[in-house]
Amino acid sequence: HRSDLSSVSPMETLLFIEDDDAIRLALSLALEDEGYSVREAPNGTDGLASFDRHPIDLVLLDLRLPDMSGFDVCRALRSKSIVPIIIITAQTDTIDMVAGLEAGADDYVTKPVVPKELAARIRSLLRRVHLQDVSQPQASVFGDVELRREQGIVLKNGIEINLTKTEFRLLCEFADHAGSVLSRDQLLERVWGYEYLGDSRLVDAHVRRLRVKVEDHPDDPQLIVTARGVGYRLIG
C-alpha cells in the first residue's frame, strides 16, 4: 500500500557551516538519514552566501571557522533573519557557548556531536517554530510592551521590536504565567522542549537578550525580574 505523497510534509533544509570536512560529511549524512535536506559550507563567507541564495529552515554553525569568526556569522544571520541557529562549541568552551548565545543563537551542542541528540534538538526547535497556542489571548499588554500572538510580533511604545522565534516563545511563556515564577527547568521544557538538559545557561542567555529588547534599563529590569535561585517572573 503506497502512502499518499501529497500528504507528506515538505523536507526541511538545514545549512551546515563547518570547516572540518570529515565532521561536515558525517553529520550531513546522519541528518539526511533523519529526513532533512542539508546544504554544506566550509567557511563563513560561503555559508552566508548560501543562506542568501537558498531558503533555509535552520542553521548549524561551528564557531571556529577559517575565514571569519563564527560569532560574526551568527550576528550577520541575525541581522537579516530569525531562522533558528544551533552553534557547535568545544566541550570546555563555556565562554564561547555563552558568547554564541548572546550573538543570537537559539541553542548549542558540544563536540563530539552525537547525531541522534543533534537531530532531536533540531526537531524540537523546528517544531516549536511552527507551534502556536491559540487558547491564549491573542494580544497582551505589559507596561509599554504589547505582545500580538496572532501576528507574531511584539511592540514597545508602539514600535515593533525584532525578536527571534525562541525569544518570542519565551515572552509568550512569561505572558501565559504573568505574575508567577517560572523555574529554569520549566522554561527549558516549555520553550525548548528539553526535559533532560538542565542547562540554566541557555535560559539565562535568552532572558538577558530578551531584556535588552523589552526593558528600558536591562541591567535594572522592571518587566522580567529574577526570582533569585529559582527562575524568572514577568510582572503582570
What does this structure look like?
The chain has 236 residues and is of the alpha/beta class. The protein is 40% helix and 21% strand. The protein is built from eight helices and twelve strands. The strands form three sheets. A five-stranded parallel sheet has the order 2-1-3-4-5, sandwiched between helices. Strand 3, helix 3 and strand 4 form a beta-alpha-beta unit. Helix 2 runs parallel beside helix 3, helix 6 packs across helix 7 and helix 7 crosses helix 8. The chain starts with 12 loop residues before the first strand and ends with a strand. The N terminus is likely disordered.
In brief, what are we looking at here?
With 236 residues, the protein is an alpha/beta fold. It is built from 8 helices and 12 strands.
Keywords:
single chain; 236 residues; alpha/beta; 5-stranded parallel sheet; 4-stranded antiparallel sheet; 8 helices; 12 strands; 40% helix; 21% strand; globular; disordered N terminus
Return the average pLDDT rounded to an integer: 89
Please compute the radius of gyration using only Cα atoms: 18 Å
Helix content: 40-55%
Order of helices and strands: EHEHEHEHEHEEEEHEHHEE
Span between termini:
54 Å
Strand content: 15-25%
**What general form does the structure show?**
globular
Main sheet strand line-up = 2-1-3-4-5
Main sheet record: 5 strands, parallel
Class by alpha and beta content: alpha/beta
Q: Please tally the helical runs, counting DSSP H or I stretches of 4 or more residues.
A: 8
Q: Which residues sit in consecutive blocks of at least 5 with pLDDT less than 50? A: 1-8
Topology, number of strands: 12
